[in-house]
Amino acid sequence: MNRRGLALLGAVVLVALLLLTLQSRGRSSQAADAVAVVTTPVQLVLSRVHRGAFGLWATYLDWKNVRAENQRLRDEIRGLRVDGLAVQETVDENRRLRRLLDLRARLPLGTLPAEVIAREWGGWVRSLTVNRGRGDKIARLTAVIAPEGLVGRVVEVRPGAAIVQVLTDPTSTVGAHAVRTRTSGIVEGDPRGGVRFKYMARDGSGITPGDVIVTSGLGGLFPRGIPIGRVTAIDDRGSALFHYAVLAPAVEFARVEEVLLLTGDTARDLAAHFPTDG
To answer: With a threshold of 0.70, does the pTM exceed it?
Structure first.
């Protein structure tokens, strides 16, 4: 114990002896007053310290409870966000399926719904894999559509799946014509991942941005009148034999989730079932 502690202890002992002496001589009142003089400031200090310590402890408990409550609320909000995303995903899926089933009910030919289960990327989507295959009697070159328009054709059939070549594949070609001008040509995939409409250069063809391009039905592979895309620009080749129109595809190949495989007679005109403002 250091000197300060010994001095304090001695002072306390001395005060105690003094108080006992005063009490033994019958001076209880004076002793009580003396005790009050000594102890009251000490009691006041101790009371304040106690209240301060209790207040700090209560503040700590409140902070701890608030922190726990905030964490619980954050977890609850996070869970609600996840639930909200799941609900929105379900709503979007139901909307897509309703559109697909509505289209299937309208079409005057046999169809088989399928789900996209994989995509092949090469800087852009080149093919899709759907969950229909040999067991569903799917044949090569089966046309594949979505509610928005043409997706492509089946190029490979497997036991439980089929590979669909989409329009952006550079080896893809489809007979087509412009709805407004009736200009005929071929829609082909661009090596840079786009889609273009190649047509004979002739005076008065009149194709302009905004024109809708649909399948022509020539060749019997695709029914007539399925939307392929809309013209966004004209690539004027001057006196070249062919001109090109750049198209924005009707179908977003990176986002399409469900498709229809055309299993019936494709020698049909489906223009009335894919209304356009072209």
So the answer is: no
